[in-house]
Each structure stands twice: as structure tokens, then as C-alpha cells.
Amino acid sequence: MCGLVLLARSEGRIDETNRRAGRRMLERLAKRGPDGAGEWVDPESRVYLGHRRLAVIDLDDGAAQPFHWPEAGLSLVYNGELYNWRRLRVELEGRGHRFRTESDSEVLIHAYGEWGQDALQRLRGMYAFAIWDEKSQTAFLARDPYGIKPLYYSWDGQTFQVASQVRALIEGDDMDRAPDPAGWAGFLLWGSVPEPWTVYRGIRALPAGSTLRWTPKGLDPPHSFADLEEALSRPVAPEDSERSTERIRQAFRDSVSAHLVADVPVGAFLSGGIDSGALVGLMRDLGAGDLRTVTLGFEEFRGKPEDEVPWAERVSRLYGTHHTTRIIGRKEFLEDWPRIQEAMDQPSVDGANTWLVSKVAQEAGLKVVISGVGGDELLGGYPSFREIPRWVRTLRRIRAIPLAAQSGYLLTRLARRACPAIPPKLPGLFRYGHTMAGAYFVRRGLFMPWELEDLLDPDFARAGLEALAPLPWQIEDTDGRSLTPLGRVMALESTRYLRNQLLRDADWASMDHGLELRTPLVDACLLSEIGPCLAARSTPDKIPLAVAPTRALPQNYLERPKTGFGLPLENWLCAALPGSPRSDAGNRARMARVQARALADDVGQLRAGQPQTGGLGGA
What we know:
Blueprint: E1 2-9, H1 16-28, E2 36-41, E3 47-53, E4 67-69, E5 74-82, H2 85-94, H3 104-115, E6 125-133, E7 138-143, E8 152-155, E9 159-163, H4 166-169, H5 181-190, E10 204-205, E11 210-215, E12 218-219, E13 223-224, H6 228-232, H7 241-259, E14 266-269, H8 274-285, E15 292-298, H9 309-319, E16 322-328, H10 330-343, H11 352-363, E17 368-370, H12 375-379, H13 384-399, H14 404-418, H15 426-432, H16 436-444, H17 452-455, H18 458-468, H19 485-511, E18 516-518, H20 524-535, H21 543-546, H22 555-559, H23 569-576, H24 588-607
Parallel strand pairs: 14-15, 14-17, 15-16, 17-18
Antiparallel strand pairs: 1-3, 1-9, 2-3, 4-5, 5-6, 6-7, 7-11, 8-9, 8-10, 11-12, 11-13
């Protein structure tokens, strides 16, 4: 896992000013790659490549980047891991390729040289990379199907700039740092900035599962090569329950086995839930020796349902891991809060939990960890999987009554003015809840659209909403895909919340500690194998994962109510956000709204040309 930089110019040459900009960008990526740094300028001084390395596969310096294949005129900077690189290497050797390292980087550049863009269909892993083709004078960028690894770019017509994080890219020269209305409006709507936008007008995210080409003549639009929704909508051949369970079990084993490929020890985050517990069981089944696991605990949760510690420690004993339990208190959190803010690449109402457990993993000497992120999206672990289809059925019946939905929307908005205790999303449910996308937005949204003008300059808010169109509540469920209601929620959770929130937060929070976080349940090959089968179920459940290890998780884990990986924010963040009213500290959702208001204040200052307060502004 690493950080990358690319600078290319359409006219003129890479000069010392560009080199200094590249080095500033690399310096901002230093924590992503504490094991080494490299930079290179091509012979014609057209392009600058920079790289920070976290050595996980082939620790030898010969595998350092930028990586060159002189015979083909290709140079690579790459962030991620290819889990099937050995199999690809054998195939390439059969086609006459010769290798000088034991790295996945060299396999990746040879795969591109052999198959071009079609190589992406053969890759299994998490990746974001840039390849410079000297012969065609082309920069080629790609990002994995789920978007596990981030990649951002800027193009002003003269200079093309690319980096692994927004915070690095803003160190570039002549960067348009004006606030982007779509990025800020999107954050306030969702709690995270939806790709391809960022909070800066001059910076865009390369969408997940997409490629991008730059030549001195200009920049082509991003091109999608992977579609998670298409994978979920494939028809499923009938099979008996026993065969289906065994196929799913083998698919989980295969994914975990792939994610264990490393030349350093691989540990695991261990909560009290099914996802991480089953993954640890599978790691043990697959021969992971000296397995180290880490768990966070909090004094405020001790003896309460939210306390993950006793459950995690039982799983550790069940599978015989070397376990670390770390109790985090308010004092330590407040001391770490400035570092969390500094590490946050873009605004987010989440991520502090992953940052803290990554800190504990680093203290335990781990360099790579397995995480259960993505299990809820794949296996229907959220209440949304049951609530959203039910909401849609109810609201469609209401909309069948003339003016009923519109009246409900107007009356609840008026009633909220007199009685703020009325849930703020209730008007949104009447207005948008008749479609899956609209109901999902109401379920996951942070603020409703009409609230934005109270948080931002009205013109700025309107410009943001217009740029984001078509918005979720404008999308009808008529895209022609044969998705079941369960499959549609799986697709929404995976392409919205998982992509824009969980995976992005997992990246910046873990990489701030030089820690590679791997996600066996977020894997395009796994989705292709069992996603359609899971989406075709009548109701979601996690039994297939819980029974996947040879020694299955105990029944009481299946019966335990879901609590999530939360923090006692109501006790902590009021002190971390000066001036925030304690009456808004009743639960995590309310605290998210407090954080969003702090960020909205930052937007106002940005638009006025004033420095940010740093209330929570990650960018």
C-alpha cells in the first residue's frame, strides 16, 4: 500500500518548479509509505512520477517504485495489492515475459503491456495506478471496481496532476482551490463527499471501476470497466440449499485465502460481530500462524450492549489468536482529535473509529490487517435492507391517493416549525420514499435538500444541488435491471455508503498509521461468484458467513442484536467541538448533524476567503 503522484504537461517541460511541487505532494503522502520514496522524470521531461512505499510484497529495494519496464517504454506508480499476481505471472511467463523481481508491481506493468486496458478484467485486488507510456505519450489511470483505493486528478488545460489523496493534490502548482458547491452540498446531504466530486472545484475523483487517459492533446472522459449493479442482476440457476451454502462457503474461503498473500504477517481487526469473527476463523482454517487480533473498548460502553470487548475476546479464545484489547478513554480521544482532523482527507462524519483501531494495530506491530468492512452491504446486515422495501411499498400506496403524499410532505414541514421533535426526515419520506433510491436517500441522508440553504449561502447551496443532478430522489426504479428489492438495496449500499464513506474512511484512517487494510468481503471476484445468489434471497442473513469456518461461530453470535462499530461520541465530541450544544448530543445521528454544522461554518469561511477554523474540515 502506497501513495502516488503524477505530473504531466501538455506544453513545455517538467522543470524544477514542477519537481518541487511533486516533492511537496509526496511529503503529504509520507505516512502512506514510510518504507521508501522515489521520483523519476522521463527523458523528454514530459512527466514526473513520484511514489511513497509501504513494502508488503517483495520487500527488496528492486521492487521499489516508480517501476520501469524499459523494453516496453512503460513506467508505473501504483497503490494497492494484486492478490492473483502469482497466477498472472505464470500466464505471462508462458507468453514470453521475463521478470526480475517477486513483486506484483512488475506483474501489473507486464499485464498492461500484454493486454492493455483488457488486463483490468484479469486483476483481483485493490488498486489505483498510473502508467506512463513513453511511445504513445499517454498517461493511463485505473481504479479497482469497488473503489477501495482512491485516486484524484486535476487538469487545467496545461498541467495534468494526479495523487492518492486530495490533501496531496492541493500542494500542486496553480491548483484551483475554490470550494466546489457540489462537493459541499453532497457532503451535507450524505455525510461524505460523493464521487467524482471533492470539496475543491479543481479536483475530481476518478470514479470506482474506471479508467482515464491523458495525452498532450487533452484528457478523455473517465471510462467505466466494472459495474457492481450488473453483477447483482445476473440470473441465478436454481440449486438446493445445501449446494448453495457450500458454494458460498467456498467463495468466502477463496477470498480470504487471496487476501492473505503477503511477505509480512497479516493480522485482523476483531469486533464482537459476525463479519470479523468469521473472517478470523477462516484465516485460522487457511493456516494463518501467530495470528494477531486487536479490539477497541470504551469505559462508557462497559457492561452495555455496545461493548464489543467480551464478544471479541470469546472469538479470540475460540480461534486461538494473540489478542490485544485496548481501552480508549475520552482524554486520549481528545488528545488524538487534532491528528484525526489532520489525517481526514475529505470531510466525513465517520472514520474516527477506524483511525483509533488502526493506531492500536500499529502499536501491536502490525503492517497488514484484515477487516470485516463490506459484510453488511454484501449480506444485508443493516436495518435498511428490511426498512427500505417496506417504506417503498407503503409510500406507493399513499401516492396512489390523490395529493396524499404532497399533503403529507407540506404538513410535516409546517408541523416541524412548531414542534422540532418531529423527525426532520419525515417530510422527505413523504416526498421521496416511493422509489428505492429516494427511500435509501432518506434512510442514509444527513440533511434534507431544503435544509441546505440554512447551512450554506443559498446561491451556493442551489448551485451544488444543480451540479449533483440527477439526485437520488429524481431517479425512478425503471433502469431495466432485474434487481430484486434486496439486490437493489445491496447495490445502493455498495455504490453509495460503502464506496463514498466506509472505504474512503478506511483508507485515510489506516494509512495515517502506515497500515494496509484488506477487505475480503469487498472483492469483485467474490461478488461475481455469489452476489446474484445472495441478492435473490427473500430475506437477508449472515448464516452463510457465520458457518463458513470449520469451527462455526456460536449460535448466540447470530442472535446478538447488531450494534455497529461505534464510539461514545455523545460524551466526547461535545468537548471536541467548542460551542456545540449538549442538547444535540443524544445519539450518533445528532452528533453527525453537529459535525456537519461545524463543517458548514468552514464552507462559509472558505467562500469568504477566510482561513478554515478546522472544526472538522478534513480538506
